[in-house]
Amino acid sequence: MRSYIGLAVIVAVASLSGGCADNKPKVIGEEARYVGFTHQDVLKKVGLQYYWDMQVPLGPGERVGRFFAIDENLYCMTNQNNVYAVDAAVGLYRWGNSVANSNQTLFDPIHFDNMGVKNRGGEILVFNGVLFNTLDQMMVYERSKGILVRQWPLGFSANTTGATDGKYFFGGGTDGLYYCLRITDGIQMWKLAMDYLGDLPNQIADLSTRYKDSIDDREKLYLQGRMVLLTLRMSSEVLKRFNDLITAPVLYYNERLFVGNEAGQFLVTKIDGEKGPYQKVWGFASPGGFRAPFIVNASGCYMACSDKRIYAKNYLNGAEITSWKDGPFMTEGLVEKPLQATAHGLYACATDDAFYAINIANGKQMWKNPDARLIVGGGQDKLYVLDRNNNLLIVNETSGAVSASLPMTGLDFFAANTGPMAERIYAATASGKIFCIAPLRASHKTAEMLRNPVK
């Protein structure tokens, strides 16, 4: 694994030399920094400013291909499978690593806080981690300095981004199974099939008991026929779903693993519960497959399906959320991009259709916009939404009314952002320049401030 830390510090500091010693930015320097990008005066008209900007140290022929804002870090992932991490708060370069060979498939990063990994002496190392996986490898890094903590072969062919509870790595395979590996030593703990059949086994067992207890020949014949039908149905379900690809990224939340496949089977497994290392606790089958990442939080489990429905269920037991009285929310196009959520809304971008804003409390449509594509920030009852033409829309979260629209010239990537730093907009160019755009009330960050941040 190559490290770019030393070079990056030099390049990052050099690229931020537009400020002066008294922390007052030079007008000429500021103008030069934003040539080719949306003018500062345009941002000011809607209450925004360039808060900071910096350059990550890309190598020859290297281009940014993906850009993420996750918790306190920003990540640029390049065409050479190098990953560069930047402090999202102040724009300071943190680290850069070659995470995988350039010809490998590298899936999106995931975070987990307070991971515990045993060292050779048996002591548990606790750290905040970022995990990556390829088709056949998983890598765990300490995410403030980019130190590689563990790297193991998966032992299966992955088809999606993995998940973790800090102790185990979970991944969905091309063989239709989902796997659990212990992060400390890479040992496979178990693998499971997508064979949750709901109440069918219990129904068959009940019919069998009734058959044995019955003394009526006609009733016994009826019960026998019902058992045969249900057994055939159960076998059909198993055969239909067992080998289907796990197409949606697996997700871990509150001791539970959420998995969905192309055949429309959705399954929730409790990890390290009172009944053993795993327990399949609920599941359901939909008419379409699951491809988009799920959202699971305290309010529920939300799943976009290729049957053009968004399902909402109690994440603990799979019960329908009763406040969604109209049932699953229906879209006209397929939702294959990640759902987004705020405290009040659930947001879905449907292909060849529209961007939908759904009231997360009752499942009803608040508004839709045919051009909107991605929430890149927000706050105080407004959302910053990127549209299909790379315009930034300032949208009322409840009504969908657009109060302003401005072109985001020169910017190639925007990070999805509805998290704790949602008042800031993070954008990047393919050449590795990163911008943070923030409200005018936030104090402007000069180069000197970035070099010497207040602790």
The gyration radius over C-alpha positions equals 25 Å
Intertermini distance: 31 Å
Give the low-pLDDT segments.
1-28
Outline? globular
Q: How much of the sequence is in beta strands?
A: 35-45%
Quickly give the structural class. Answer: mainly beta
Q: Helix coverage percent of residues?
A: 10-25%
Quaternary structure type: single chain
Largest sheet: 4 strands, antiparallel
Give a verbal description of the structure.
The chain is 15% helix and 40% strand. It is mainly β and 455 residues long. The protein has a domain at 1-105 and 412-455. The longest helix is centred in the middle third of the chain and has 25 residues, at 217-241. The two termini are 31 Å apart.
SSE layout and pairing:
Layout: H1 5-15, H2 27-33, H3 40-45, E1 48-55, E2 64-70, E3 73-78, E4 82-87, E5 93-98, E6 110-118, E7 124-133, E8 137-142, E9 147-153, E10 163-164, E11 168-172, E12 177-182, E13 188-193, H4 200-213, H5 217-241, E14 251-253, E15 256-260, E16 265-273, E17 276-285, E18 295-297, E19 300-305, E20 309-313, E21 329-330, E22 340-341, E23 345-349, E24 355-359, E25 365-369, E26 372-379, E27 382-387, E28 391-396, E29 402-407, E30 413-414, E31 425-428, E32 433-439, H6 447-451
Antiparallel strand pairs: 1-32, 2-3, 3-4, 4-5, 6-7, 7-8, 8-9, 10-11, 11-12, 12-13, 14-15, 15-16, 16-17, 18-19, 19-20, 20-21, 22-23, 23-24, 24-25, 26-27, 27-28, 28-29, 30-31, 31-32
Helix pairs in contact: 4-5
